[in-house]
Amino acid sequence: MVFGGCAGDCSPSTISNSVYRMDSEKLTWSRLPSMLRKRQRQGCGVIHGGGVSEKVVLAGGYDVAAKAVVNTVDILDLATLKWSAGYEHDFSAF
After folding, report:
1. What is the pLDDT of residues 43-70, one digit of tens each?
2. What is the helix (H) or strand (E) element at residue 9, kind and residue range?
3. Are the beta carbons of 40 and 62 closer than 8 angstroms?
4. Where are the domains of the chain?
């Protein structure tokens, strides 16, 4: 999966909230619902198992337009392909 990022000089107009997933058997890409906010340089992890549908968790990142660290966590449920807002966290210490 590919989440957001930027192109070229990473100016605010090039920051993306697009999400793509690759089908490794067909070797094709498909577009998924866009992230809740544009961000780049975010951390990402997957939660799976325990009878819970798999989720992708995006944390932090950088907002070029605001010139600030993004302090939110957003979660993509891979079963429903719906985004939900997580919590805010002070990532500036990292």
Report:
1. 888 888 766 678 999 988 888 888 888 8
2. none
3. yes
4. 2-93
